[in-house]
Amino acid sequence: MEGTGPVEALLFWLFALLTVGGSLFVITRRNLVAATMGLVGTFFAIAAVYVMLFAHFLAAIQVLVYAGAVMVLFVFVVMILNREEDEPWALSGLAGKGVATVALVYLLVRVGQVLWRVREAAPAALEAVNGHEFGTTRALGSTLFRSYLFPFEAVSVVLLVAVVGAIAVARPTRRHAEQEDAR
Questions:
Q1: How far apart are alpha carbons 38 and 45 in whole angstroms?
Q2: Which helix (H) or strand (E) holds 71?
Q3: Which of 87, 88, 89, 85 is nearest to 179 (CA)?
Q4: Which has more pLDDT, 54 or 20?
Q5: pLDDT exceeding 70 applies to what percent of the chain?
Q6: Whole-angstrom Cα distance, residue 66 to residue 132?
Q7: Count of CB atoms within 10 A of residue 37's CB?
Q8: Sorting pLDDT into bands at 50, 70 and 90, what band is 69?
């Protein structure tokens, strides 16, 4: 397989660590704007991993759609909905540490399982990457509309429900509107 030298491996692990580090940054920030900016960095690191997998189309879409449009929408929503009652809630003390320990152990076990199973890539996958077919619009469209049509449509419905839910959450409540009018 071309592109499997030590430099490429080092770059892959660097971008993988940046992705995990950015994700941890996002979930540990109390400031929503800072967390959103961490999410942008995570999206760029994922795009770099796509480029290393010769999936240039996916990398471009990752940057344009997620790091661009979706994150701009997130920033506007965070700035508009930055209400005091929206402060994140978390367990504290011994219960919080216990939940965090269980979650960390679960995460490490799952990462270990994935690393154990992905020791060698499947020959068909290597052939697709070597032929640079993986990640192209043709390969993506063919796979999406032949093999994964139902999951694609199911995700569309889930995203529609999420958008309707976000609008319902963003809509000011009657009590909140009355408080604003009283000021």
A1: 11
A2: helix 71-80
A3: 85
A4: 20
A5: 75
A6: 24
A7: 18
A8: confident
53 in Cβ contact with 135 (< 8 Å):
yes
Check: pTM over 0.70? Answer yes or no: no
Return the number of other C-beta atoms located less than 10 Å from residue 77's C-beta. 15
Residue 67: pLDDT band (50, 70, 90) is confident
Tokens representing residue 27 in the block: 């979930």
Tokens (6 digits) for 100: 């965090």
User: Where are any strands of DSSP class E within the chain?
Assistant: none
> Among positive and negative, which fits the CA dihedral 133, 138, 144, 147?
negative
Q: pLDDT per residue over 90-111, tens digit each?
A: 777 888 889 889 999 998 998 8
Structure tokens at 50: 């796509």
- Give the integer Cα–Cα distance in Å for 40 and 63: 9
Asked whether the beta carbons of 46 and 12 are under 8 A apart, the reply is no
Cβ burial, residue 50 (10 Å; 0-12/13-18/19+): buried
Closest CA to 129 of 117, 141, 121, 138: 121
Cβ atoms of residues 63 and 86 within 8 Å: no
